[in-house]
Design goal:
Blueprint: H1 2-25, E1 34-39, H2 44-58, E2 61-66, H3 69-77, E3 83-86, H4 92-97, E4 100-115, E5 125-126, H5 128-136, H6 145-150, E6 162-166, H7 171-183, H8 185-190, E7 203-205, H9 207-217, E8 221-226, H10 227-232, E9 236-237, E10 239-241, E11 247-248, H11 252-259, E12 286-294, H12 298-314, H13 316-321, E13 325-326, H14 329-341
Parallel strand pairs: 1-2, 1-3, 5-10, 6-7, 6-8
Antiparallel strand pairs: 3-12, 4-8, 4-9, 4-12, 4-13, 10-11
């Protein structure tokens, strides 16, 4: 009996110590709250870091699933998540029809990563016409005369091109195909833009992660991905000739130059496109990424908005570190006014 009592005492003591240790290590704040979101893969690297920092500071967990913009729009429309995320802004009439709210978080760039073993990083130059014809299946080899004309200093291989595209509904695809529709009349007429389109050449992969992984491991491929994925995977990225005829490289500065032309206002639920922007230093494939809320869910929307308000206030450095462009302060002010007008801030 004494032995049993002693073991019971030891068990209770250890349990108490573990409990105390857990309390000491718990983040400050109320804790226990979980906010569920799903959608775009484009901002996933940033949202993951923001969510981790927010949890450490508040004890509130942001559970964000990277399922693609199409899935994010669908899930918030069906009210199965607390917020959806999309890289393709819904048109104002769609926002109203689905009884949603919509606002941007950050701006990012879509880049063309390639795997040509013979060509070093930063050496390949493309323009809208060549990219369009590659994805239409009309330019089939890397030493095609149109690519050679842009890269006279390179010894391009006589190898077939395999373009890689998103197989899932994707805002990254919407941004990329909107760019192609701007620069290529044939694309605009025959294919158009959207989260899913009928690609005529290449192979599909799921998510920015899937495209990046496929291109990285498969020689002579090219694929469009959000810039952070290209950086994280140490991938080669093509330079592009922009609307001003200048060859530019992807960077926070060239994304910011493109974003200057955007017209982000609450009256239109911040609907705007930034592709093929003017400006000598502008990267031509740029877009904002958006959050979607169910308009009637006021209380949970307040909790979601607290997180993104925190990100606007404390998350800009994290955004820049991951090669996204924070929203200008004047746009953040417009978003806060929009939240106030809808009773969630």
């Amino acid at each position: 009996m004494k032995k049993i009592l002693f073991l019971l005492f030891v068990f209770i003591t250890i349990t108490a110590l573990v409990s105390c240790k857990g309390k000491e290590e718990a983040p400050k704040g109320k804790g226990g709250k979980i906010i569920n979101g799903a959608g775009a893969t484009f901002p996933y690297p940033l949202y993951s870091v923001w969510a981790s920092d927010y949890y450490k500071e508040t004890g509130i967990r942001i559970n964000y699933q990277s399922i693609g913009s199409g899935g994010g729009i669908r899930q918030i429309a069906e009210r199965t998540v607390d917020f959806g995320a999309s890289d393709m802004a819904l048109k104002p009439e769609e926002v109203e029809e689905k009884k949603l709210l919509q606002f941007p978080t950050v701006i990012g760039g879509v880049v063309l990563s390639y795997n040509i073993p013979e060509i070093k990083e930063g050496k390949l130059v493309l323009d809208g016409e060549t990219v369009c014809k590659i994805y239409l299946g009309e330019i089939k080899k890397w030493n095609d005369p149109k690519i050679k004309a842009l890269n006279s200093n390179l010894d391009l291989p006589d190898k077939p091109i395999t373009p890689v595209y998103r197989s899932d509904g994707s805002g990254t695809t919407a941004i990329f195909t909107h760019y192609l529709s701007d620069v290529c009349p044939k694309w605009a007429k025959e294919i158009g833009y959207g989260t899913s389109v009928n690609f005529r050449a290449g192979i599909g992969a799921k998510g920015n992660e899937g495209v990046a992984n496929y291109v990285k491991r498969t020689p002579y491929t090219i694929g469009y991905v959000e810039y952070a994925y290209a950086i994280q995977n140490n991938m080669k990225v093509a330079y592009l000739k922009n609307k001003s005829g200048k060859v530019v490289s992807p960077s926070a500065e060239s994304f910011k130059e493109a974003a200057k032309t955007s017209d982000l206002t609450g009256e239109k639920h911040f609907y705007a496109w930034m592709t093929n922007a003017g400006g000598e230093g502008a990267w031509p494939i740029v877009g904002a990424t958006y959050i979607l809320l169910a308009k009637e869910k006021t209380e949970i929307n307040k909790e979601v908005v607290k997180f993104f308000d925190w990100a606007y206030t404390k998350g800009d450095k994290r955004a820049l570190d991951l090669h996204y462009v924070p929203l200008p302060d004047e746009v953040k002010a417009k978003v806060r006014d929009y939240w106030k007008a809808n009773g969630i801030y």
